[in-house]
Amino acid sequence: MSQLFDLRSRRAAEARFGRAIGSRGYRALLITGSILLAAAIVQGMTHGIRYTYLLLSPALLCYTVAVWWKRQLAVLPPSGQDLTGRLSVDVLARLKPDMTLQPQNLWLALHDHWQAFFITNHLLITREMAHAQLSTNEADLDQALQIATHLAERNGNATIELGFVIAGLLMTSPSMQQLLTQIKAQPSDIEVTADWLGRNLSDMHAVKRNFGGIGRDWAFGFTPLLNRFGQNISLAIAKHNAHFGWLVKSESVRSIETALSHKNAAVALVGPDGIGKTTSVYALAQRLIEGDTAQTLAYHQVISLNATDLASRARGPGDLKHIMVSLANEAAHAGHIILLFDNAQMFFGDGHGSFDASQILLSIVEARSVPMIFALSPQDFQRLKSRSTSLTAQLTPVVLQELPETDVMRVLEDTAVGLENRHHILVAYEALREAYRLSGRYEQDEAYPGKAIKLLEQAVNYAEQSVTAASVQRAVEQTYGVKASSAAPAEADALLHLEDAIHARMVNQTHAVKAVASALRRARAGVTNPRRPIGSFLFLGPTGVGKTELARSIAATYFGAESAMIRLDMSEYQRPDDVQRLLATGEHEAASLLMSVRNQPFSVVLLDEIEKAHPNILNLLLQLLDEGQLTDTSGRVASFKDCIIIATSNAGAQTIRERVGKGESLESFSSEFSDELINSGQFKPELLNRFDEMVLFRPLNADELAQVVHLLIAEVNKTLANQNISIELTPAAIQAIVSAGNDPRLGARPMRRVLQRAVEDTVAQKILRGEAKPGDHLLLDTPDLALAS
Amino acid sequence: MLVMLVVAFFSWWYGAGWRQVAASFEARLHGVAEAFSVRQLLSTLFAPWRRIITYPGASLGERLRAWSDNVFSRTIGFVVRVFVLLAALLLTLVVALLTIIEIVLWPLAPLAIPCLIVAGLLA
Q1: A218 in a domain, yes or no?
Q2: Between chains, do B117 and A17 touch, taking CB under 8 Å as contact?
Q3: Contact flag A57-B117 (C-beta cutoff 8 Å)
Q4: Interchain CB contact of A216 with B (< 8 Å)
Q5: What is the number of structural domains in chain A?
Q6: Which residues make Cβ contacts (< 8 Å) with residue B72, sequence separation at least 6?
Q7: pLDDT tens digits along A598-638
Q8: Is the CB of residue A57 less than 8 Å away from at least one CB of chain B?
C-alpha cells in the first residue's frame, strides 16, 4: 500500500506537526513571544542590552514558528498531483507513519472529524454502523481513494478533503450499499452528500467580498424617502454579508441583469409562486453590490416597495400618488436605484390591501428614468396585459423556468444548512429528497423550489432528534390530511383485513369488495402508479344493491370518515356548458368539484349515474383517470392522485337482474356485458378501459336482504345504547320486513324506510308509554311491528 | 523526524513563505484601493457631490445661479474625493513601505535567532 501515499513524507510530517501545535499552540506561541518581547524591552531599559538579546532570540523563534504554522502547517496547500501531495492536512495529520493502510483503519483515524460527521449524520448512519461495513483489505483502499480524488476534482478542490475520503470509503463498501437500501436511502446519496459538503467547503474558503469601499455612493444621490418607504435589499446584503451561492451566477439572474442593462429598462419578472422571483432579485442585488457586473449597473442598489405598506402610510389616494411619484423621482435622481415591485399585482389593484397605481407606473415606465422590476405570476401578468396593454408593452418580460431536480436539491441543501444553524437540529438528506417528492405530489399551487422549501421548513416542527423523511411525511399528513408515511403495523393489519371491515357494514358483493380492497392495499403499499388516482372503479348494477354503500364504507374504513366522500350527481351535468361548472375555481360556486378536492385531497369521489353526464364531461373524466388531475378555469391544477374515483351506473341493470336470475355468476358474463354496454352506445370503450376495474353488483336475494335488516337493527341499537335499551327481532319479524321492503326495481333501498316505520316507530311508542325502560331488551315479533300502515 | 521538520521549515521560509509575502504586496495594495473606492473616485472625480444640483430656469440670472450651484457641488465633490484619494495614496505608501521592510527582513528572521544568542553572550 506504500505506493498509495507516503506517510513518512515531509508533507505528512508537517501535517502531524501542525496538528500537534494546533490553534491553542499557535496562540501560546504568540503570547509567549509577546511576553518575551516585552521582557526584552524592559530588560533593555533597566539592565542593559545583554539580556535583551537573549530574550529577543526565543521571542523571534516563537514568532517564526507561529507564522509557519499559520501560513503553512495549518493549511498545507497541495504540492503535486500524487495522493501525498493532494490529501488535505486534516487527513495526513490523523494518520500515523507506521499504521497499516486499509479502509477500517483509515475510518478509525478520520471518523471524528466534522466532515466525517457531516457525511454520516446527513445519511443517518452511525459511526458504529459505518465501521462495521468497511473492509480490512488493503487492496480496497485504492478504489476508495480514486473516488475521493474524483469527488475533489468534480467539486473544484485541489486538495482531497477528509470528507471526500470518508465518502470514498463508504461508497466502495458493498455491504454499505445494502445498508443504505435497508434504511431506504439510495447508494447515490453518499456521492450527493459529498458534493453538498464540497459546496459548503467552497463557500467557507471563498475570498472576502468587497462592497465598493467608502466612496461607493458619493457620485449618487441621497435617498431619504426611499429609505423611509422601501427596503434596501443591497445594503442589507452588504451589512449581513448574505450570500446567495451559486444562484448569483445562475441563468435566471443573468437574464434579469441583461434585461436591466438596457437604459433604465422595466422588467416584468414572470413566474409562478415559489419559483424564486424574489430570491433571484436578491441574488442579483448581491451581484450588483459586489460590482461584479456591467459598468452601467455596478454598485446599483435594489430597493423593494411594498404596496400594503405604502397604502397604510398614505393619508389618501392623492397622497399615495404623490408618494409614488416622489419615490420614482428620487430613485431617478439618485442614479443607482433599481425599484423592485414584489407582488406587483398589488400595485395594479389585485388582492387585499392593494391599490391601482397602473397609470402612475405607466408614466414612470414610459419616462424610462429609473430601472424597475415587477415580480408577477403568469396569471397576474396576463391580467395586467388585458387591463393595460400600453404598460405591458413597455415591460421586458423575463420568464423564470422551474429549476431541474438537481438544482432544486442544491437549493434544499442550502436551505437545510440555514435551518440547521437556526434551529440547532440536523436535517437528514432523506428529508430533502422526501420534501422534493411529497411537495411535488401534494402542492399544486406553487412551483419548485419554493414548495419544497416550505415543506422542509414545516417538517422542522415535526422533528424528533433530527429532521428526517418521517418528519416531512408527518408535516404533509398534518397539512394536507393525507397518508404519506408507510403503514404502521396496526394499519397494515387493518389493510390486510379490509374486506372484513367492509363486510361489517355491507352484505355480500364479495367480488366488488375484493376488487376495491386490493386497490387500496396496492396504493398504501406504494406499488401503484403515483401519477394516477389511487383507484378508479365503475360500479354497475341495479339500484339498492350497495354501490353507494361500498363507496361510503371505503371512505369510512380507508379515509377515516364517511364524510371523506365527495359526491356528485352526474344527472345534474347534462348540458355542454356544465363543463365550466365542473371546472369552476370555487371562489363563487358553492359546490365546485375542484375546490372540494383541493380541500379534501384524500377522499372518495363518487360520480353517481355517470351515464347521464354530457359527453364533454365524460371526456374530462378520461383526462382525470389518465393524469390524476384537472385544471380549473383559472389555470390552477387540482390533484386527484390521492382519491379513489368511483363512478356508478344503472346501465344494464335489467340484464344483470335477468342473468343472475337465471343462475349465472357475475364473472361468467362480465366481459360479454361490457361489450354490450359499448355496442349499445351507453359507454365509449375508451372510458370503460380507463377504469382500473368494472365491478358488477348483483341483486340481493332474500337471505341477503335479511342480513341487511340485521345491519340496520344494529344501527338502531347503536342509537338506543344511549338510553340503555336494546331490541331484537324474531325471524318472522325479519321476514316480514324483508317482504315489505323488497322491491325488485329498488333493491334494498326501501328497507331503511320500512324499518324506520315498523321498528323505530314501535320502539318510540313503547318508550313514550313507559313500556320500555333503561336496561330493557325488547324482542319484537311481527304483530308488534306497525307494518300494516 | 526533527531534521525533516527543520528542513521543511527552512525550505518553506526561504521558498513559498517568502513568495507569499511578496505576493501579498499586490493583494494589500488592491485592498487599500478597494477600501477607498479609488477606481470609482477617479472615474467620478469632477461629478457633483451626491448629485446635489439645481436646474437652470428661463432667465439669465437663474441660469447663472444654477451654473454656480453646480460648480460649487462639483468643487465640493472634487475636494472630498481628492482628500480621500490622497489618504489612500498615503496609506498605500505606508503599506508598501511596511511590505518592502517585511520582504527584506523576512530572510533575516531565522538567522537572527542564533545571532541574537551569540550577541547576548558576547555583550
Answers
A1: no
A2: no
A3: yes
A4: yes
A5: 5
A6: none
A7: 888 889 999 999 989 999 999 999 999 999 999 888 778 88
A8: yes
